[in-house]
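Narrative progress, year one. The postdoctoral researcher (J.K.) led the effort to move from monomer predictions toward full complexes, under supervision of the PI. The following entry was the first complex the group processed end to end, covering 628 residues in total.
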Amino acid sequence: MASIARCLRVARPAVFSAIVSAPRTIGARSFSVTATNAIRKYTKEHEWIDLSADKKTGVLGISEYAAKALGDIVYVELPAEGKEVTAGDAIGAVESVKSAADINAPISCKITQVNLALEEKPGTVNQVPEDDSHGGGWIAKVQVTEQGLKDFDNLMDSTAYEEFTAAEGEH
Amino acid sequence: MMAPTSRLGVITRRIPLSRPQCQSRPKVITSPAQTRPYTQHLSKPVQIYRSTSTDPYLNLSIEHHLLQRSHPDSTILFLYTNRPSVVIGRNQNPWVEVNMRRLRVGLPTSSSPYAEEDFYGRPHANVKTIPVSLVRRRSGGGTVFHDAGNTNWSVICPPAVFDRDRHAEMVVRALRRLGVADVRVNERHDIVRDLDVPYVGRRAVKVSGSAYKLTRTRSLHHGTCLLRSKNLGHISELLHSPAEDLIKARGVESVRSPIGNVGVGGEEFADAVVGEFQRMYGGESTGGGVVVGEEEALAMEDVVKGLRELTSPEWIYGQTPQFTFSTHPTEDDPRERPSKWRLMSHKFRAHFTVRHGVIQSAKLSGLRYRNPDAGGSPDEILSKALVNQRIHHIKDWRTTLQQASSRIVDVNDLGEWLNDAFGLQTPGIKGDLSVADATVEMLAQTEVGRYLSKNTD
């Protein structure tokens, strides 16, 4: 997901360092988090990914912040099932208000399932972008690779992401 | 027509900004020592390029290359003009948006008072025509028409400063400087002119349409601008599909708007846009911009890679979001079907679900068969045999149906009916060409097409 709102901007250096340093502690802490709950993290490009407790699978989508900034989503171009991707690769796109915005892989992974319902009801992404359940706005389910786990460590947790988007909104 | 491509040697030249309008192109520097590709500028903070190519696929590929390879903090203006083409948005359906037969018939190269096609839809022998290229762009939005009287402008910048109106406003300021006072950006991010039409009152006509592409690091806003197009009267024919009433498509449907020209020259417009762009971002040192020629663009591996993608039938047709084609109202698509499609027996029904050009399911009924009782339901056998057919590769539905079931009585009528609906060549004009074949054949007539077939991977 690209940054799209009028005032979105690449993080200022100060924000940047916060993101880079934050994941380390969180990554270390995540081992002690209750085993049943998935951990959710975010990219600077406004994708989210849930990592399952066993760290083998994940679910990804675009953030509420991005969905709001994009406006009415009229089509979701889903990733190809079975495709192996590296972090940052464009895996699909959403179209809203004449804009085709890439969805990027938040981590290295293999796409195992896509949310076909979004093709028919793309507006679901506007309504419940961060819902990973049946009927939610999630984009794809993935198998997490070893590299993917490392990538995951470098993403922002929800607190860091909130700060990040708040900083973007200030401009 | 194609821009001259035989310039050897060089290519990086700069145009002085305030050149007298409509003059011949600047002299080409032919010393190889000065040959520097336009890509040398990709890291500069402000870049301006003008393409001399009129190939829509190549110009979009140069633009894509600039989007992907320029410095993430740079701001770029790219200007180009295409030969007659219909450009659909990334997630659109060509069978809904475009009259493919009409595209192939083409447009007159000079204005002619006579009809361009005869009773059978064939171009008149005495009218020179140029076929209209069908292009699927990478950005979103709806279908637009390009020709020599239309100039395209494109701004690539960091997502930080992305705003859907910012650069449309830039073009409005350029037009006002050229004396076109009645222009403004409307709520759809298009540029319109407010005209006072006698007896009708004030009416907004669209002169420029916008579309956007957002990647991880960059944002692109490009737009058309109808300056002095001679083809305004033809655009509606090109953009009305015969089967739009039978197809319900996922993805993006175009919004139709009345259109008009602004009435300024191409060079004049380009200079004015460059001027406004420089007022916003600086970059005066770039002069009027770097000229990009066809040959040097084709020398860039990435440009050619993008070009192959953009010209492939699998992109143009195969990227089409799922759609249903139905001869009768359905729960999903309850529209009444127009009577022009009721050529067959009133019992006849057809329903296809097509995904990325491939028939996922087919249901035909009400046909007459020879030996109807000879083993299995003939409707079911026929329907099943059509599954997995790629409709953009079907050359003649009569043959396809014949192969699916040899027992259909009205195979020719039904086949021609489907040929009409899916925009296949009128049979008998020139062999049997699928819509994909027709695109490939049209491309092969162009400089860029010849280059691609000569330099296969």
